[in-house]
Fold this protein.
Amino acid sequence: MFLGVAILEHDIERCRAIVGEFGDKLRYRIAVEVAEASRDGLWALPSGAMTRDWYEAACLPGVPETFIVDTQGRIAWRGHPSDIEDPLDAVVAGTWDIEAARHDQQERYRREATRERFWLMQDYWPALTGNEGAQSALRLLDEELNADLVHRNDPILQSYRLTALSHIDNRADEFLTFAETLANSEAFSNAPGLYAIGCMIIQVAAGRRAFASQGLTVFRRLEALIASPGQTQIMSPYEAVSLELWFLRALIDLGHTDEATVRLPEAKARIEATTAPQAHKEQVLSQIAELMNCSKVAG
């Protein structure tokens, strides 16, 4: 039996709409554990059993995550949904070595400081509000990055450091330099890494040409990577749709309206061809139309 559970959500109607977009393609039930707003307006971890006994207990860095529970009620495996086929076949066949799997995961937790990183994030995210809060979050992160507790070159923590810098008004130049360093590092030279960095740069750009130029450079690298022969690091349909918006925004910020106009029909066709939820596609197409109209007025 397969069961999906959406956690860290505060809008059950949004979940219902996304599930509805998949229609008959989704052949298992989806439950929702709804998050509640804390007093400061942030969405706190809900106190439900799924978050407490699965998400927190496993110190998950994010979702989606898949668990296989064997016939004895034991968690036999956990990992990304794309990696489930082999362990699931072994569990069903009764050939899965659960002790070896447990040992491997414990070693990975130790090597990657998984638990320490998870609980660090529980302090980091609530602090990341406003300019002063972002500075506090950055100090917290830098203290841990400079300690032996976590790995200094951990790509996830480095991306969180970039996020904190993006929220601090007087450290824009440091943000751009650090973003460029990450984009050129081995850890981020993949589709998800380049996508995340490029989007963050354009969000922070606010009309600054240096930022838009760097963001566009990252996106061009990303497109070349996606188009390269034998490429297996594909983006999610959601990211593929959003990329079209961010790419066009970078072109507009740099005044490349002619290139943006030429790119527009192809961008729309690529968006429609994805399997992303229709609501997301319509939202992005609406934002693109507004962006293009504003650029014509400005021109």
The chain has a mean pLDDT of 83. The chain has two domains: 3-112, 168-298.
